[in-house]
Amino acid sequence: FYYFIRLCLDKILLQCVLQSRTLSGADAINALRPFYFAVHPDFFGQHPKEREINENSLKRLNGYLENLQKPGFRSLKPTQLTFYVRETEPNSSNVQESFSASGFRAVSFTLHTRDLLSTVLDILNSCSLSTEHIQSLNVNSQPHKEVKSTVNRPIKWDKTYYSFTGFKDPEEELEQAQRVETTLISWLDDNEAMLSFTFLFRWQRSWGIAHRCSQLHSLARLVQQRPEVLKNVKGRTVVFTDRSGMSAAGHIMLGTMDVHHHWTKIFERLPNYYKLQKRLLFLEDRISQLLGGIQVIYIEELQPLLTLEEYYETLNSFYNKLHDSRLPFHPRSLRGLQMILESDRYAPSLHEFGHFMIPTLCDPEALQWFIFTKAQEARENLKRKEEMMITEKELIGTSTEKFSLDRLYKEPSVSSAQMIDCCKRLLEESLPYLQGMHLCISHFYSVLQDGDLCIPWNWK
């Protein structure tokens, strides 16, 4: 019994010593606050190059820190990062530094440490930021390897000790963690039912696979911590974009630079968003009735990204203007036609796809005359659009098959007419080296991070 008590005391003492020198994930975030403040992309709104570099580097850094906290990790590949820091007096160091034309300091460094504390210190020192505040976190600021010989001595406990005390065997936990270590694929497999029947994922920007995995991992971690937040997401589309909220199209937007607290607030606020969405649909129906049955639509590819609140205000303002003017449209005379509202135009126009583009500030009488005179042309354009979409789909299939492409797609800014012209000319060529590739029809030549090949639709 005395020996057993002695073992318990030794274990407790060992845990206390280890706890006094290790850094938790929350401590690491607090310690890195000066760094996050110095490199946060919001400070680079007028400098898109620096902003994008910081966004990409922050995602890679967060992935590195998360891997450090995984149970049973063995080693990490050295990760080289570059950040633009708001300009301070440059200090002499072995870190590569340069000043951009915008006045921000570029800092490049490589992470290769195996514990949180050393990693945090390396980041702060590389950016010439103070490390004095780390002392208040009650951790030993000396490198991990200097104390390893005193407290990290190998201790092997007998299996009966764990079965008698109820403590968890760390070796057994480590083996189990290594066997079932969570990856993106395994997490998606485990949650296949929830993901397949609850909501869909989309990205507003052309993020690479590494960024998408990072964003999905962040969402997965939130769901694990707060599984109840998904109760209002069923049947919806989740879009990772630059803003958080609900879009005019009814998609749930998660800002890629927002913290989990903001995402949680969005999920909790969804019932109110759904109520506003019902009011918005009712408003669209009222506008349609006033304009002879013409359908009000919102096309994400052709309109700016609007939140649900912004779009509702636009519709409400336009409805009040129409209601006061009392235009004499015959009921259902314009049924089958479509229109979108725009706030940056002053004159109505007819799109090649057949929908009317109506400014919110358009004079009601001018609007009435324009719709009457363009109604037949709009119907012809809509019919031609349907025919072009069928032709486009057939040409994409034929081109994919002929060149053995893994994927052929276009950017939203490329019209159906441009895509048709591009595919017809491609089919006249012999391009064996496209086999197995992802080909994107765009406006320029480039190779995306994931290996997709972009060519302009009017290639020569």
UniProtKB/TrEMBL annotation:
Question: What is the name listed in the Swiss-Prot or TrEMBL entry for this protein?
Answer: TCAIM protein
Task: Enumerate the Pfam families for this protein.
Answer: DUF4460, DUF4461
Q: Which GO terms describe its cellular component?
A: mitochondrion
Which top-rank group of organisms is this from? Eukaryota
| Residue ranges of domain DUF4461 in the record | 201-460
Residue span, DUF4460 domain = 19-129
